[in-house]
């Protein structure tokens, strides 16, 4: 008992230390264009958006209400959410792995998830995956209580309803949560004890209630977001299947870290024979991503929805986790140090963090001041990430977004006579005079943009940073 208590204290001490590091990372590394895009969402809260559901915007709104329109404010809830998320996973493993010793199984599952680069670095950023992982871990906890064989069916009902609500909130974070729901449905239909209980069926109303804001928004906007995300299946290039499959596997080895990835794969294989519920929860999303990779690219972060399940499933293999956890934490720490301090002066195309985040402050101010000196009254950009990053970074001139996606926002359209148009240099418009301005770090160009002379532009004026 004394050894267990000591391990628990060490675990929570480690998690507290990791949280401090993630908060520092969140405050230190500049926003990516996508994060700035989600910040624009947060200044115009809706029930849904073209690219994703609303949850990431709501989290940013809460974070900026606490810490202001700062980099830390945008990302604040990410590092903080890992604490209750790890607590939930810690307790979920107790019931989802009935044959494993308690509390060791909970500690090991939470450690494995925290050792992945997906969570280690991802928790310090703000993307739809951040709230998704949080709600999936809470869902696993309530689900573990709902299927507890010691509970009578009536006592399990609140836990089933809670599972439905949390899965719906995960869907409100990212559409891939529906794959976990399909996996749960498969487990219920193939397990007599679960199929005959009222709980799984009564969870469905809670699920649809939680999903309803996103469904309502899509219904009011001609199903734009559902069509956009579902349309990804329309691109099909089977001749490149080996390339896409290699990218899928390589991406997961990188984001899980190599030794943790091996544990995930072995644990999933063992669960197919030992743990039907975990097998269903993990295999359905995995099968969808693998099938997609036979004809189109799977983005590395898409399988994030399975990581909490895999962190528990990995323990079914019975292997030691010390070196996978240590190696994962070391790799994550190296990446974090490089992201904050850049001790290795890598060229931009070899440093993805630098490529996305470097040089924005100086570039945005320089472009805005030059445009103002030319008599321009606004900046304009078609690329949503570029427009959002300019709006977040500088308050010298308003920013006009010309991409049609902005039409789905409750923002007024406007026409500006003297607007400087900025776009990536490779998309420069022929026949117009354009200067070149680059984002630079240590005197090295990261990416260059064509800056056109003042022109008449129609678009949507983006919110300004307060």
Automatic annotation (TrEMBL):
MF-aspect GO terms: transferase activity
InterPro entries for the chain: LipidA_mod_glycosyltrf_83, RgtA/B/C-like
Membrane topology term: Multi-pass membrane protein
Chain segments annotated as transmembrane: 7-27, 131-147, 159-189, 201-219, 249-270, 277-295, 301-319, 326-346
Boundaries of every Glycosyltransferase RgtA/B/C/D-like domain copy: 51-217
Superkingdom per UniProt: Bacteria
Localization: Cell membrane
Keyword Ribonucleoprotein: no
Pfam families, A to Z: PMT_2 (PF13231)
Entry keyword Ligase: no
Keywords for the protein's UniProt record, in alphabetical order: Cell membrane, Glycosyltransferase, Membrane, Transferase, Transmembrane, Transmembrane helix
Broad class of where this protein is predominantly found: membrane
PANTHER family named among the record's database cross-references: MANNOSYLTRANSFERASE YKCB-RELATED, MEMBRANE PROTEIN
Protein name: Glycosyl transferase
